[in-house]
Structure formats: C-alpha cells, structure tokens
Amino acid sequence: MTSHPAAGGGSAPALGPIAYFSPEFAIDQALPIYSGGLGVLAGDHLKTAADMDIPLVGVGLLYRGGAFRQELDAVGRQREHAADFHPSRAGLTRTAARIEIPLPNGVLLHAQVWCAAVGAVPLYLLDSDVPENAQAERDITDRLYGGDNEHRLRQELLLGIGGVKALAALGIAPAVFHSNEGHAGFMGIERMRGLIEGGVDAATALAAVRASTVFTTHTPVPAGIDRFALALVRSYFEDGVETGLSVDAVVALGADPDDPDTFDMAALGIRLAGRVNGVSRLHGDVSRALFARYFDGLEPADVPIGHITNGVHPQTWVGAPMQALLAGAIGEAWATAPGAWSAARSIAPLALWQARSAQRRSMLAAIAGRGAGGRPVNLDPDALTIGFARRVPTYKRLTMMLHERERLVALVNDADRPVQIVVAGKAHPRDLDGKRLLATFGAFAASPEVAGRIVLLSDYDMHLGAALTQGADVWLNTPLRPHEACGTSGMKAALNGGLNLSILDGWWDELYDGENGWAIPSADGSLTADERDAWEADALLTLLEDAVVPLFYERAAGVPSAWLEKVTTALVTIGPAVLGARMLRDYTNDLYLPAAADGRRQLDGVPVV
C-alpha cells in the first residue's frame, strides 16, 4: 500500500499496516464471534478499511463455542445455547503461524492462527484448541466473554500478548496498533518486551509503544471496564508471562488510583496509548470525566481524550430498495461519498415511499417465524412500525415504555392509526437484571390486549438486527443519558429511511437538529430512577401521540408527504455523518497518520516489534 484516502480527497503519505485488536468481530452470521455493538463496530471498521484500501489487519480470538444462541419462551424468559460453529464452515484458513505464552506453574500456552478474509483486509484469529495444550488451556478460546475472572484474564493475555506474537510470526510489522476497548491492553506489554529484549531501556520502550498506539474506549460507566484482582495479575507475571519489566512496573501500568487491590484494563490501555478517543462527542465528554483520575489530577476538560463518532458499513446494513434509490440519486459511490448526500433531496417522494414500504414488508417476512416461544408474528404491512433492538442491560431501559401501560395499549390499538412495536434483544447470560427486563416485556407482549401489535422476537443476531433497521419506520432508543456511548443501530435505521425517536444520547446528541427525527426529553437528576423512567415514558408517549403518529398517517396526496420530507431531511443531514468511510477518514487523518509518524520518530534506529 502506498497511499490511502484522505479527508479532503486525493491521497496522503504512505501508511504502514494498522493492527486493529478487538475481542469480538461481527463480519457475518456464519462467524459467530461477536456479542453486540462492540463487535459490530469492529466488523464495520474492517469492511470499510477494505473498501477504502486502508492497510488494516484485524486481530482477535476464535471462540470455538462462538457467542451464545438465544431462545426465548412465550413470555420472554431467556435460555442460552452454544453456537454451532466450525472454522472450516465459516471459510477460515489456517495459517502456519504458531505462538507460545509462558503461564504460571511451568505451563506453556500454545495457539494456532486462522485467517478470515474481509475483502482485502485479513482478520487473524488466535485459537488455543490445539493438541499441545492441556484441556484447561484448550478451553481458553471456548466462548466469548465466558468463564470466571481468571478465564477472562487468560483470554486477554492471549489476545494482547498472543496477538502481537502472531503478527510477528506472520511477518507483519504494524506502524500503528489500535486497541478497540481495553481487552487487548496487554499488547503494549508484549511490544515493550520485544524492544527491551532488543536492547532498549524500559523508558524508551514505553515512549515508543505509546507513540504508535491508539486506544478507543466504548464504555461510559466504570462497570463496563474489565478489572482483575491485583493479586491474580501479579501471580501471572511473577511466575509465567515474560515482559522484560519488573512485576511492580507491569502492575503500575494498570493500577487504579482509587482501588489499590485492582488491576484496571482501561487504565492499562490509556497509559500505553499516545492517543485515546471516545466514540461520540458526548461520550468524549463522559470519558474525560470518567478517566480524569488516571491523569494526575487534571480537570476533566484538560484530559487528553478526544472523540471520533462511530460510523457503519452501509453496504452491510442498507436494504436493496434504499441502496438502489441512494445510488441513483447520489451516485455509485454513495456509501463512501459524504460530500454528495445533498443529492438525496432529488429522490421522488413516491419512490421513497415505495422503497420504505417494500423494506417494511421484507422485514415482516424475515421475522415471521422468530416470535418468542415460537409464537407466529402476524403484523400489519401498512401500519406504523417502531423498532427497538439491542443488548438488554438495565441502562437501555427496554421496559421504560411500559410505565403507562393503558396509554400504550390504546396507542397501538387505534383502529384508524394503528401502531406496532417490534422488539429484539439479548441479555448477557449472567445479567439477571437484563433477563428480568426481557421477561417483563415478554409477558406484556404475550398479553391478549396487544396481540398483533407488540411482539418480542427470539434469537437476536446480526441478520435480525439488519432486518429490523431496514424495515422499521421509527427507531426507538431510550437509554439513561449519558450511558449510551454511541448506539449505531439508529444510524443504520437512518440510512434506511427510518426516523429516530431517541433520548439525546450517544450519536443522536450531536446529529439531531430538530427536523431530522424526534428527541425524547431527559429528566433532571433530582428524580429517583423510577420517577425518571416515568417522566421520560410520559414524554415518549406524548411525542408518539401528538407528533409521530399523526405525521405518518397524514396522507393528503396518497403518500405521507410531510413524513417523507422529514425522512429526506434525515438522509441529507445524518447520512454522510454516519458512513463508515467518514469514520475511517477521521481515524486515518486524526490518529493513524500522526501515530505512525510519531512511532517512526521514536523508533528511529530501534528494532520494531
């Protein structure tokens, strides 16, 4: 690779390989090594890099058990099943690379490396299920986010340390290392080890690693950070993992200033990266406040954490009818040309309505057999359809809309202006609160009073998420502000001509302009959690009753002209901003190129790992 696209067009100076580490990647349903938004973002990052000829290589783990398959009974109670997955059926090829990592008690962890081709971008996946390992070590890559804390620590050692070793074994010398969340934080430790082994002192090694490392945080709350008992981490580095550093130096890199008994992976990632970013403008503000304690007393405003708002890969997520319309109006480069999206205003309202209606019908066909408990899904192909699909942690507030049950029931059952709500989501197997939310919503959806109007779908996955974002007229998002780091599902809906109805959080906080969707007001912090949910539920239902539903059913000329004008405004104002191409240009120009240049300066005459 000798050049890459720059934000202003043309080409920029040569950029060597960028190693993009992530614990999960959503490339295709056939490769079930993802859980939620982090993996979807990582997959879109790789796909967009392939489209733009950016020299990226992905590094992750091959989970033989994949991510769990979800089964919901008729009232929303979740059961989990192992994914049916084998590398050969996912089109992976086994490379010749093999790596070893010393572990405590004389154990040597072995791993092989598989490759998935994401266009021209290779995704390398480490796999510990090899004959050289005892069963405990073979099971390290058993499933995504499984096991106890020590199991997770072993996975993260394999991802970070093993990933760097794997790239070396493959003959790849990255110019930039990018850690997508803190799970891969140990990669910096291994890079320092290689430099120190080559004769560099520890201070120079740290400076060189930091100069060429990018760290992206996706969490807005401390609970989202991987944290390990300091004693456990010490045990692995005192008798096992080789670093070239003292154990005290290693644990200092992950030290939590407020909890001396804890090793914090976000702290490790931040201290080993010269550039740190959140994933939306608001999340940048939240991250500076959250991580200020790692910066020696700096005020949050002065903390050196920026933001690059996430984007999505349109070719993956936009339905065929809308793709055809956008290509016809904007040009064949619609998915990578942010500057041309004003041409979306030329789309004829009737053509836009026909495309939207076709995608709504396709969605209903795709979900017909996916009802919770095997319940059939028979919805109205012409009714206003609201989509809600995401992971189900408590902060996303799946059940907030149920605070005024009778009012909601009346809304969806209006004979003249019917509304239907389609919901899908997974709770982590150990998230009992999330499972209770699913069961609460499932019991409501199963009640006769909303039959045929509100449905809960089972086995939420990448394909189901695509169907819903393509077909929903309105995309609903009710996070507890400011706990949504970005929330890319609403971006996908917008590209498909859906309108967002959301709390002003994540990406919506910066792209809502008063005309391109609806903002659900947020209550102030003086209310209890239940009072806040009730207040915001009332605001949501009021918006639906007074603004959303009337606009959809206003049909002066046979089509909802005012609704379609709002859709067109959303396409023009949101479309170019949420393209993965815009995101990759920002990463390349703002982070990758400067990191590569700084790395070259720091490593001038120094062996590169």
Q: In words, what does this structure look like?
A:
Strand 15, helix 13 and strand 16 form a beta-alpha-beta unit. With 609 residues, the protein is of the alpha/beta class. It has helices at residues 37-52, 135-138, 149-169, 187-197, 202-211, 230-238, 247-253, 265-271, 281-290, 314-317, 320-330, 349-367, 405-412, 432-445, 462-471, 489-495, 508-511, 529-552, 561-574, 580-602; strands at residues 18-21, 56-61, 69-72, 78-81, 93-102, 108-118, 121-127, 176-180, 213-216, 227-229, 255-256, 259-264, 275-278, 305-307, 384-391, 419-426, 454-457, 474-477, 499-503, 517-520. Helix 5 (202-211) packs antiparallel against helix 20 (580-602) and helix 15 packs across helix 16 (489-495). The chain starts with 17 loop residues before the first strand and ends in a 7-residue tail after the last helix. Helices cover 38% and strands 17% of the residues. The chain is built from 20 helices and 20 strands.
Strand content: 15-25%
SSE class:
alpha/beta
Note poorly predicted spans: 1-13
Q: Mean pLDDT, as a whole number? A: 94
- What overall geometry do the principal axes of the alpha carbons give? globular
Count the E strands. Answer: 20
Rg from Cα: 24 Å
> What topology, given as strand order, has the largest sheet?
5-6-7-2-1-8-9-13-14
What gap, in angstroms, lies between the N and C termini?
20 Å
**Overall helicity:** 25-40%
Question: Number of helical segments?
Answer: 20
Main sheet characteristics: 9 strands, mixed
